Amino acid sequence: MSVAGLLAGCAGNGADSEATTTEEPAPTTTTTEPDTEPSLEEQYPGLRILSPEPENAEAASHSTYTNMVTQEEEFYIRNHYPTPEIDEDEWSVTLDGLVDSDVELSMDELKREFPTETVFHTMQCSGNGRSYFDPQVGGNQWSFGAVGNAEWTGVPVSAVLDAYGAETGEDKWLTVMGGEAPDGEDIFTRSIPMEKVMEDAMLAFEMNGRPIPPDHGFPVRFIVPGWYGNNNVKWVSRMHVMDKMVYPNETWEPNDGRLYTHWQQYSYRIFGNNVEGPNFNEEISEFDTQGQMESAEIDHPYLYDQLVKSIVGFPTDGETVTHGVDGSIEIIGVAWGGDDDVESVEVSTDGGDTWNEAEFMRPTIGPYSWRLFRYMWDPEPGDYTIVSRATDDNEFTQPATISDQDADAANKARIMNDTYPWNQKGYGNNAYMPHGVDVTVI
Questions:
Q1: Closest by alpha carbon to 336, among 372, 361, 363?
Q2: Whole-prediction pTM value?
Q3: What would the pLDDT profile of 148-163 be if each residue is shown by its tens digit?
Q4: 159 and 95 in contact (C-beta within 8 Å)?
């Protein structure tokens, strides 16, 4: 058993229309085959559905964030196209580009011929918290629940690349493509720096000790521990070793389209206000998202390593709570920092006016897993706003609020003056005040 398992209308009859009969025609009835496929709500009772097709849903309750591991019923779903129906026995992953020879690997070969490993990875949609932007931006209106922590098991990508003589220097890139796009649609494609690929990227085929569910990428998903979910390509069909990331040219943008470049160069980047078009990059050397935001060399950051963030899980928003038998109330939540360690978490019960340090509840289950925290609180009866803020080992701390749309006059999307920058696509929001919970103590 895995660690996660321990934790947590009818056609006509075809007769000639002019034929005659002396018999009275028998009465006919039309029956409709019942729809036996459960709805998305029935499949995932712990999720709030944003769109049924393509499937997009987030955790419905803050209580999801009181557990170390997120079960499938509460783990957010982010799809750009409807979930494909895939026969694992017929699925393969192509490896080409800067390799000794191109190869197509079946799922059986991946599982049988390479080592396996397991990692806990807190995966967050880069649009999580988008609904808190004012004015509202387009896209699925995620609130707090597009994040989950799961155990992923699969093959180290480094083992596959080494086996086929791939060029794996730190200046190289691995471009990964999903196989879910309908004919004629842009292929979901992400370029991942080889340094990160060789460190800990994985071709995963299990989630929490079971085969990855279809909505989460069955039969194989590319896992990039610590990085935003947009890098964790589902339904992997091809990996291409390159000198640079996918870049607008005739190879990657045939017929004046964005076949391979859409989600690398035009989307999943932080564009400030009044930016008319992206500034393309063939390569970058900084992958920490806040580091990119502060860099003079990158105008529109790519969403790779996650920003430090925390969420209160108990009490939940709008809840009425009472003191425990010991006279106190236990505030519980989770905090994560992507590639970086969370150094501390503070809790405020007065909407951010004053702060107290929380304690971590359990030992970490890996460098890319969130950590549970708690704060013991002894309040008087009344109404309160509880928020948490985390600080990572780079001394980056969650900002308080989101800036006004026109606050960034230079169009540089940076975290400044304790505010997170409003941006055109609502990406990366880690401001703590929008994520707070209002509770009543009796």
A1: 372
A2: 0.91
A3: 999 999 999 999 999 9
A4: no
Least confident of 98-112, 311-325, 338-352, 412-426: 412-426
Cross-strand pairs, 300? none
* Token reading at 175: 């471009």
Q: Which of 226, 98, 227, 230 is nearest to 174 (CA)?
A: 98
At 296-310, the pLDDT tens digits run 889 899 999 999 999
Q: What is the mean pLDDT of the chain?
A: 91
Token pair belonging to 155 = 């093959």
d(CA 364, CA 360): 9
- pLDDT, average across residues 361-372: 93
290-294 long-range contacts, CB within 8 A, separation 24+: 290/394, 290/396, 290/415, 291/394, 293/413, 293/414, 293/415, 293/421, 294/414
Burial 265-292 (b: 16+ CB within 10 A, else e): bebbbbbbbebeeeeebeeeebbbbbbb
